[in-house]
Design a protein that fits this description.
Elements lengths: L3 H25 L11 H14 L3 H14 L3 H16 L1
Length: about 90
């Protein structure tokens, strides 16, 4: 049986672990890295979405703001800004 709250809590833990692991790998890449799978901004964006799903709206806003600051390009930054505005309306 699907227990939404339990699954979101597990997903939050996995997201936090992914962010920690990415810091080491991302730091080893060159400054010009554009690999989305290595982007801390992408991981933070996903984490913020999970925070929102679990009712942690203020923390989601803080994390999405960090994602904006870590985005690798303007298109990605704009996508995260749209998410941030949605979070602020919740």
């Amino acid at each position: 049986m699907f227990n939404e709250n339990v699954n979101y809590q597990k997903a939050l833990g996995w997201a936090e672990k992914s962010i920690e692991l990415s810091k080491t790998k991302y730091a080893q890449e060159s400054e010009g890295a554009t690999h989305m799978d290595l982007s801390p901004g992408l991981l933070l964006d996903n984490y913020a979405g999970l925070l929102l799903k679990t009712g942690q709206i203020q923390k989601a806003i803080e994390i999405e703001t960090q994602a904006i600051n870590m985005a690798l390009d303007e298109n990605t930054r704009n996508h995260y800004r749209v998410n941030l505005e949605k979070y602020k309306k919740d």
